[in-house]
């Protein structure tokens, strides 16, 4: 199976204005041991919104909805689409791809090291979201 050329990443915001961060397992193909947001590669022909929903469900068991598109970032020929939502239900139960999770304020992301690089535009968006400038 070839490497997907598209991926979806979802920033999940809870009622305390914290975002969900996951720690990748040590045997992860990309960024082993790094912290990241839920997400992953799209299946062939899969809609980016559906990919984000599926990846969140697989990685955390959370059921998410009402995804809103933030931006697309291109890395090594892969289109990574970023979304956000505050609509979710359930409690986090991790799959084998991740070993830990935390709900963190944006300012705390820097303390979760190492963290997968976050595009500057995305970091600014999250800051606005947490401040309530975006609803």
Low-pLDDT segments, ≥5 res: none
The major β-sheet equals: 4 strands, mixed
| Shape assignment | globular
Strand order of the largest sheet: 4-1-7-6
Taken as a percent bin, the fraction of beta residues is 25-35%
Q: Structural class from helices and strands?
A: alpha+beta
Number-wise, the strands total: 9
- Structural Rg: 14 Å
Helical amount among residues, as a percent range? 10-25%
Q: What's the order of the H and E elements?
A: EEEEHEEEEEHH
Question: What is the end-to-end distance?
Answer: 39 Å
Mean pLDDT: 92
- Output the number of helix runs: 3
Give an account of the 3D structure.
The chain has 135 residues and is an alpha+beta fold. Helices cover 21% and strands 35% of the residues. It contains three helices and nine strands. The protein has helices at 48-60, 106-109, 120-131, and strands spanning 6-12, 19-24, 35-36, 39-41, 63-65, 68-75, 78-85, 87-89, 98-104. The strands form three sheets. The protein has a four-stranded mixed β-sheet, with helices on both faces. A three-stranded antiparallel β-sheet has the order 3-2-9. Strands 5-8 form a two-stranded antiparallel sheet. A hairpin with a 2-residue loop joins strand 6 and strand 7. The longest helix is centred in the middle third of the chain and has 13 residues, at 48-60. The mean pLDDT is 92.
């Amino acid at each position: 199976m070839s490497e997907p050329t598209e991926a979806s990443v979802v920033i999940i915001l809870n009622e305390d204005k914290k975002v969900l961060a996951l720690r990748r397992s040590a045997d992860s193909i990309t960024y082993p041991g790094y912290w990241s947001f839920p997400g992953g590669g799209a299946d062939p022909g899969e809609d980016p919104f559906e990919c984000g929903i599926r990846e969140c469900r697989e990685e955390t068991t959370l059921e998410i909805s009402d995804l809103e598109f933030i931006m697309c970032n291109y890395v090594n020929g892969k289109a990574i689409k970023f979304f956000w939502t505050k609509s979710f239900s359930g409690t986090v139960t991790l799959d084998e791809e991740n070993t830990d999770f935390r709900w963190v304020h944006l300012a705390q992301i820097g303390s979760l090291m190492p963290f997968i690089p976050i595009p500057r535009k995305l970091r600014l968006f999250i800051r606005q979201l947490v401040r309530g400038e975006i609803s």
